[in-house]
């Protein structure tokens, strides 16, 4: 019985740490600022022609 209890405690701690890691990744991704896109000549040609798909 004690070994099962130890496994259950380990499982809960592991799940808690995993959830915190996922939450940290989500927050880091949400707070990350996107870099300004670099424009090239072909992009301006597409924009003038109306081919831009966002």
Q: How would you explain this protein's 3D organization?
A:
There is one protein chain. The chain is mainly α. The chain is 72% helix and 0% strand. The protein contains 2 helices and no strands. It has helices at 2-31, 41-49. The radius of gyration is 24 Å and the shape is rod-shaped. It starts with a helix and ends in a 5-residue tail after the last helix. The mean pLDDT is 81.
In short:
This protein has helices spanning about 1-30, 40-50. By secondary structure, the chain is an all-alpha fold.
Largest sheet: none
Distance between the termini: 58 Å
List the uncertain runs.
Answer: none
How many H/I helices? 2
Helix content: over 70%
Number of strands: 0
| Element order: H for helix, E for strand | HH
Proportion of beta-strand residues: under 5%
On the 0-100 scale, what is the average pLDDT? 81
- The coarse overall form would be rod-shaped
What structural class do helix, strand and pairing data support?
Answer: mainly alpha
